[in-house]
Amino acid sequence: MTRQEQLIDTIPENPQAKSGDQAVITAENLNVYYGNFHAVRDVNLHIAPRKITAFIGPSGCGKSTVLRCFNRMNDLIPIARVKGEVRFEGRNIYDPNVDPVEVRRRIGMVFQKPNPFPKSIYDNIAWGARINGYRGNMDELVEESLRGAALWKEVKDKLKQNAYGLSGGQQQRLCIARAIATKPEIILMDEPCSALDPIATLAIEDLMKEMVEKYAIIIVTHNMQQAARVSDFTAFYNVDEGRTGELAEFGPTKQLFTKPRQKATEDYITGRFG
Amino acid sequence: MTTQTKAEAKTSGMPEGEELRRQIQQRKNRGQIWFSLFQLSLIIAIIALIILLSNIINQTFGLSAVENKIDPESLVQAAFEKTIVGRTDTTTSEDDATLSQSIAANPNAIGFLGYAYYREKADALRVLAVENVEPTEETVTDNSYPLSRPLFVYTSQETLKEKPQAAEFLNYYLDTVDSVIGEVGYFPVDQATLDAARATLAAATAAGDSEGEDNPIAISGSSTVYPLTAAIVESFQAAGYPGAITLESVGTKAGYAALCADRTADIANASRRMTRQEAAACSKNRRTPVEIQVGADALALVVSQENDWAQDLTLNEIQKLFTVAQNWSDVREGWPDEPIERFIPSLESGTLDFFVEKVYVDSYPLEEMPAASLKAMLLANISTGRARALEAQQPFDERNQAQMLELVRTEVVQPRVVASWNALPSLFNRSEIEARTLDDNPEAELHWKSWLSWEFLTSTQSSVPEYAGIRTAFLGTLWVMAIVILFSVPVGVGAAIYLEEYSKHGRINDILQTNIDNLAGVPSIIYGILGLTIFVRVLEPITSGKAFGLADPTTANGRTILAAGLTLGLLVLPIIIINAQEAIRAVPQAYREAGYGMGGTRWQVIRSHVLPSALPGILTGTILGISRAIGETAPVVVIGASTFITVDPNGPFSKFTVLPMQIFQWTTRPQPEFRHIAAAASIVLLILMFTLNGTAIYMRNRYSRK
Ligand SMILES: Nc1ncnc2c1ncn2[C@@H]1O[C@H](COP(=O)(O)OP(=O)(O)OP(=O)(O)O)[C@@H](O)[C@H]1O
Ligand SMILES: [Mg+2]
């Protein structure tokens, strides 16, 4: 059995998975520049609701850049410029009338390295809700979010303790809990498991499978097995002779792993890349 | 490189084996040199710090020789003598016989006499016990009777050598005194004391050149001891001494002067010990005093034989009896309601002095005298013009005891530091300092003085170093620092936030940044000139307070706390901005991303995440800034802090001075004592700085202990 065949076996059958079905967010002719450097080229993507979409590709190919375009995180990088459109609920989120604060409140993000605030576990979660004008019962929200991130049992007795007292995996789940506390419609995850051991990784993967009932999830990963295990759709970005940020292939995960249309995709997923 | 190593290099490119070990050792040795250099740097820094601190401390403490213009005890003495003699129901007389007769004739009378005179009239008078001790030979000799005093003759070692006949006379004195002293009316001393005196004499009377053998023996001094010495002179001559002896009664003090300063007397009669100053005057004139106690005198408190109630008195009752009491019943309950009639020796006699000294002076230090007595002392010792001037400042009757005491001290006693030493010489050369003081300032007393004292902190400026304090400068520094903090911390942190979080890019930003970096290095005097132009001159209506109607427009000018605070605030602004910027830059980008990622606005992210994380660094910058501002002198001089000011600053529009300015001025004064107070003020400045910094460090630790 080849490595590719092993991989394909792990992919769940997903008949509805088809690109283009009522997308929750779409990228149209998306181009990103860092100064003069053209990092993302003409990307077109449809992200399906209540599905997990995985971004894969070699390092430096522009996965994070595209992901950060979906909640205008690139605005924080002074030299970054975005051209093209990202449509969310029919509106271009890069339209001057759109407030990035609203976009980020509705499209949450979990980062590659766990980055809790240097505050208590409780405050980490409550902060986002509080600043966004949450009017409900804060204690309930904190509990609900921690349960949603499968962390409640471990931390329910130390909510007032500093978040840095948690393990790396717990911290990452806290970041997920924090992200879902603001009730987003999409969650962006940039290599959420890269700093975690296999057990914590599995815990987070299980979590994603639960969460996908409510949210659309986009996950960047270097781990082919992970993409195969959890995602419904996969986007493969390529670096070709110095040209970064080209969306080489996008489709249902099963199809992309079994019948890649591109040679580059096949090379990459079979490990013959580079 | 040798060919061999080239060959090796071909095989692995890296030194191997023995050579590897040698190469590592070499690298370590090179590192060791750096390590030693770093260690040395640290040691130099520590030594510099220790020298700095010990120098200040050395100058702040030490011995100082204080000379009183007038002895406070003599003030008390004079005050009580005046009160006692001034009573209308007190009769004084120079004649002891008159006194004893008057007392004997009147049952309500009381008085005191030399014990000898009491003995003459013992049949008509009754002597009272004092503190339950009767004056007897025993109680007087062992000093348990409170109103007793020793009687001395003094000579000098040099006299004994030069005039053997004086030594001969004194030996005779010791041999015969006990047999005549009773007749004279005094009390003998015990044999042991006499033997000790004989030994002293023998030791001092080494065989010397006896050149003055034919000169008369000159005796001078106390009128109290006079009759005793006279009796012995008489019997010495009767026993066959052929030479001449002169004997004068001039008083104890004059006797010491004759013995030492003038060297006209060989022997001085004395009814009190030689003071340290008098002994010093002796040494100065090459006379080493020799003290011989020959007997003891006692005062007898006597009443008439007809008085049937008084048996004894306590010292406290005696104190009342001669001053405030009217009737015998005022002295002790149960005694008759009869007026007291007092008969005492007059002011001219030494007896009244002795009585007042024993009964009053020892129990009433100047500090405890009531305001009224202090007022009397003051008026008796200053000119009427001065009294009027002081009265005009604040009426005497409105001043409390402490204020009156202060007046008496500064106007009458006038203690002056005539010489002062640093701590180290004071500790290690004390005997030399004592000798020097006795030589140069025999009247002065040596005290261990801390120039840093509560008075120093609470008094205002003065041209006399001992009275000068830092109150005004200390308050000035606090006010100026308050303005500096209120101005530069918010403005500096605000500017840093703007530069770091709002305008991260662009030309203007770069230009601003370069300017701020350069401003931090501009010499402080230039800030002073800036402050003078802008805050003192251009913004005068604001900095003087005129614009707010808070200052008198005719006298107010811009040289105020506000102008100084703003100038120093400008001076530290770049320091605070740069440090705050660095602190903000050091906040992990991940916190910002997380904050924005959850829908936070820029200000919410700054407020909740950036500032709390940057706070320790911001506080560090604030510490650096405040430490710089608190010690700055040049800009304060330029904008014109007051050089001599005694009025407390009471707001931002006050005239002021600050600690470093005060220290600077003191160091320029010629009198050495100003160095001590400059050092003391430096300690205050350092402590103030450490306190401010400590608070900031405490806050920093609190906020970074997350
Ligand atoms: N802040 C930035 N400034 C300049 N260039 C950037 C910046 N961020 C990313 N780039 C460049 O943009 C390209 C895409 O980067 P991106 O971080 O999106 O890659 P990636 O696919 O996420 O890589 P990895 O898998 O290593 O995380 C890279 O060539 C990178 O060097
Ligand atoms: Mg990335």
The CATH homologous superfamily name of chain A equals P-loop containing nucleotide triphosphate hydrolases
Percentage beta strand of chain B: 5-15%
CATH class of chain A: Alpha Beta
Count of folded domains of chain B = 3
- Helical/strand content category of chain B: alpha/beta
Portion of residues in helices of chain A? 25-40%
Q: Taking strands numbered 1, 2, ... along the chain, how are they ordered across the largest sheet of chain A?
A: 6-7-8-3-9-10
Description:
The complex is a heterodimer of chains A (274) and B (706). With 274 residues, chain A is of the alpha/beta class. Chain A has one domain (3-112, 186-269): P-loop containing nucleotide triphosphate hydrolases (Rossmann fold). Chain A contains 11 helices and 10 strands. Chain A has helices at 3-9, 63-69, 100-106, 121-131, 138-148, 152-155, 168-181, 198-211, 224-230, 253-258, 263-269, and strands spanning 25-34, 37-47, 52-56, 80-88, 91-92, 107-110, 186-190, 216-220, 233-240, 243-252. In chain A, the strands form 2 sheets. In chain A, strands 6-7-8-3-9-10 form a 6-stranded mixed beta sheet, with helices on both faces. In chain A, α4 crosses α5, α4 (121-131) packs parallel to α7 (168-181) and α5 packs across α7 (168-181). The radius of gyration of chain A is 19 Å and the shape is globular. Mean pLDDT of chain A is 86; it is low at 14-20. Chain B has 3 domains: 89-135 and 300-364, no CATH class; 141-299, Dipeptide-binding Protein, domain 3; 471-704, MetI-like (MetI-like fold), CATH 1.10.3720. With 706 residues, chain B is α/β, with parallel strands linked by helices. In chain B, strands 2, 3, 4, 6, 7, 8, 9, 10 and 12 form a 9-stranded mixed beta sheet that branches. Chain B has 31 helices and 14 strands. The model of chain B has no long low-confidence stretch (mean pLDDT 87). The chains are: A alpha/beta (274), B alpha/beta (706). The interface between A and B is medium-sized, with 29 and 22 residues. The complex binds adenosine-5'-triphosphate and magnesium ion (MG). Adenosine-5'-triphosphate is lined by residues 34, 37, 39, 57, 59-65, 77, 79, 244 of chain A.
